[in-house]
Design a protein that fits this description.
The protein has 232 residues and is mainly β. It has one domain: SOS response associated peptidase-like (hypothetical protein yedk fold, Alpha-Beta Complex). Helix content is 9%, strand content 34%. The strands form two sheets. A five-stranded antiparallel β-sheet has the order 2-1-7-8-13, with no helix packed on it. Strands 3-4-10-9-6 form a five-stranded mixed β-barrel. A hairpin with a 5-residue loop joins strand 7 and strand 8. 35% of the residues are buried.
């Protein structure tokens, strides 16, 4: 299962934390999934919450699954990818979040979902890069990728990797279009600013159409099929 995240905080909290204007039609989500139209803050427009598709426009993903290569950019590899390297220099973004989810392998074919969050469900920023292109029909399509790092000690028992969480004091520079240096990547390290807490959640997380506060409820460990497991 692919890791994903939530951004379900109240609008005013998001507005205050990221110092952005938020459209009236903003809708939060407990289950941000690939292809979904999701809120980000871009280097091109850092004062406004914008809405981009995660990885790929859904119309392009109907016939097959979405490759992780379109969703995640490992920081160790980004400078070796021409398109990602260009976006790192000129098209960075932050992905507002209040938690992220990872699936732990507990058997050859079993996985259990965990939710990771900061104390008080505080908001945080995941480093990302964005892109835009025009289809043959003339439609503008905006997409983003999530940067990932090796897991820190809070996450490593569940997953080998985690979202690249940026310290709040680095956000202005990350979104600074004038900074086109590849050394900006030095900011992207495994998060260790404060502890990440976790617990097991409802395996309905795997259903892209299941978007409910129930995903934040702590439940006994269950695999992706909904069966309780002794492993956690």
């Amino acid at each position: 299962m692919l890791p994903n995240y939530s951004i379900a905080s109240e609008v005013q909290l998001i507005k205050d934390h990221f110092s952005v204007e938020i459209p009236e039609n903003h809708q939060g989500t407990y289950n941000a999934q690939p292809t979904h139209l999701l809120p980000i803050v871009t280097s091109a427009d850092p004062d406004v919450l914008s809405y981009y598709h995660w990885g790929i426009h859904p119309s392009f993903a109907k016939s097959k699954g979405v490759s992780q290569k379109l969703l995640f950019a490992p920081v160790e590899d980004i400078l070796s990818k021409i398109s990602q390297k260009k976006s790192l220099r000129h098209q960075r973004c932050i992905i507002p979040a209040d938690s992220f989810y990872c699936w732990k392998d507990v058997g050859k074919k079993e996985q259990v979902p965990y939710r990771f969050y900061l104390q008080n469900n505080s908001l945080f920023s995941i480093a990302g890069i964005w892109d835009a292109f025009e289809t043959e029909e003339g439609e503008q399509v905006n997409t983003f990728m999530m940067l990932t790092t090796k897991a820190n000690t809070d996450v490593s028992d569940v997953s080998a990797r985690m979202p690249a969480i940026l310290n709040d004091d680095l956000l202005v520079e990350w979104l600074n279009e004038a900074n086109t240096s590849e050394s900006i990547l030095e900011y992207v390290v495994p998060f260790n600013n404060e502890p990440l807490m976790s617990y097991t959640v409802n395996p309905k997380l795997a259903d892209a159409n299941f978007d409910s506060a129930d995903l934040w409820k702590k439940v006994p460990p269950a695999n992706q099929f909904g069966n309780l497991t002794l492993f956690s």
